[in-house]
Specification:
Elements (H helix, E strand, L loop, with lengths): L2 E6 L3 H15 L3 E5 L10 H6 L2 E6 L7 E6 L5 E5 L12 E6 L2 E7 L9 H21 L6 E7 L23 H12 L2 E3 H5 L8 E2 L11 E2 L2 E6 H4 L4 E4 L15 E4 L1
Parallel strand pairs: 1-2, 7-8
Antiparallel strand pairs: 1-14, 2-4, 3-4, 5-6, 6-7, 8-12, 9-12, 10-11, 13-14
Helix pairs in contact: 3-4
Length: 259
């Protein structure tokens, strides 16, 4: 069995107590983090080590940033920081490592801001680069099993938002974004949560404002994508909403999967 969790922590410094709480409560084998907002020289290796984990990070200072941690007994090998073809490699949005026979990728797709903005074009370009890399890994028969997990900043379908009409004219739901996300699936990946929960909303993000969390006004934009062979070994996939509550919560909840 291999248990993993992906979580956009919206600042690892601010959320470190909650991350350590999660490690203590759930004890996942592999942890994929996004939006760490943490430069390499201040990454909390010592605190994670005390909790029984070691990590590889790819940081960009106060913005973006991704990391992958694992239990001490699980080696983290062959790290790849960055994505060929991404619009701005300095933003630190893609990290790959080999762990427990799996090629694990932590990804933080750009938000895109607005469909008519330059940031939106960069988002589409990043998703295209991700699609190219996934296709390369999927069709490499010598490659390990593949897990691509993180904050994709795309709601795959209308059922993945609380009210489709509320998002008309906004990012995260446009046809170009969804088409590029679909390319990842067509390359040979499977949406773990939707495989086991075809009808449940599965929201992972709620705006901090106006009580959106307590009113159920969320989106499903954090995903665990598995290669098809690994998907056949999928045992569970679910969200722990308790980490969207309590002191200093991220605006995302962690998404767990077990193979």
């Amino acid at each position: 069995m291999l248990s993993l969790v992906t979580w956009n922590v919206n600042s690892l410094k601010a959320r470190l107590p909650r991350v350590l709480e999660l490690l203590d409560e759930h004890g996942p084998d592999v942890v994929l983090l996004q939006e760490t907002k943490c430069a390499a020289d201040v990454f909390p290796h010592e605190q994670l080590d005390a909790a029984g984990y070691h990590a590889v990070e790819h940081g960009a200072g106060p913005w973006a940033g991704v990391a992958i941690a694992a239990r001490h007994e699980l080696a983290l090998g062959e790290p790849v920081r960055g994505l060929a073809g991404e619009p701005d490699s300095a933003e630190a949005r893609w990290l790959e490592v080999e762990v427990a026979g799996v090629r694990a990728i932590s990804v933080y797709v750009p938000n895109g801001r607005a469909p008519d903005s330059p940031s939106f074009a960069s988002k589409l370009a990043f998703l295209e680069a991700a699609g190219d890399r996934v296709a390369e890994l999927v069709f490499d028969t010598a490659a390990a099993a593949l897990v691509v997990a993180g904050d994709f900043n795309v709601a795959p379908t209308d059922r993945d938002v609380y009210d489709p009409e509320a998002f008309i004219g906004s990012t995260h739901v446009t046809d170009p974004e969804r088409a590029r996300l679909s390319t990842l699936l067509e390359a040979g990946l499977v949406d773990a949560y939707r495989t086991l929960h075809p009808k449940e909303p599965g929201f992972t993000w709620w705006d901090y404002r106006q009580g959106h969390f307590h009113r159920g006004m969320g989106m499903r934009i954090d995903l665990v994508l598995l290669d098809r062979a690994s998907a056949r070994d999928l045992v569970s996939c679910g969200i722990d909403r308790n980490y969207r509550k309590g002191p200093k919560p991220s605006d995302h909840a962690p998404l767990f999967a077990t193979l």
